[in-house]
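User: Please write out a complete single-protein record containing the residue sequence and its fold in C-alpha cell form, without commentary.

AI:
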Amino acid sequence: MLIRKADVSDAESIAAIHVNTWLHTYRDILHEDALKSWTMKERVKRWENSLPSAISGGNAMYVAADQGTLCGFILSGTMRDAKLRMRYSGEVYGLFVHPSYQRKGFGTGLLHTALEHLHGLGHKRAALWHLENTSSRSFFKTEGAELVYESEVTIAGKAYTQSAFGFESTKRSHVKS
C-alpha cells in the first residue's frame, strides 16, 4: 500500500473511484435521480477543475495505491460548518475507497494520514459528515469518531439524514505526516 499526496494528473482515477464508490455505497439509499447524475464524464470534468484548489493552501488530498493502481482518496482541510467549528477546527471533506479495495486497510491508512496532516496544521480536533446509515458509519466509530449531531440534507429533491462525527484528537502517533 502506498499513500501519497494527490496531484493534478490523478483527476481521472479519482473520478473513477468517486463514481464507483458513490454508486456502490448509496445504490440502496439515494433516489435513482440522484444516482443518475454521477457519471464519469461529469466527475472527470469536476475533478480536473477542482483538483488544483483541493491540493493547495490548507487543504490536503491523499491517494492510496495498490501495485500502482489508485484505489482510494481523502480530502481534508479547515472546518466549513459554523456549528461544528465551535469545537472542531479540522474537517475530513470526503473519504472514498473503491469497493474492490474496501476492508483492506486503505481507508484506515488514508484517514490516519489526513488526520495527522490536520494535526500538523494545528487542528487538534476534526469532524466529518456522513450520509445515512452505511457500513462506513461503523468504520468511523471504530476509528474513534463519536456522533456529534444529525441534520437533514436534500439531494435531488428528497430529504436524507446526515450525521456529523467528531474526532477528539487528530494525533495518530504511528503515522508519519
Remarks:
- The longest strand covers residues 69-78.
- The CA atoms of residues 61 and 75 lie 4 Å apart.
- The mean pLDDT is 90.
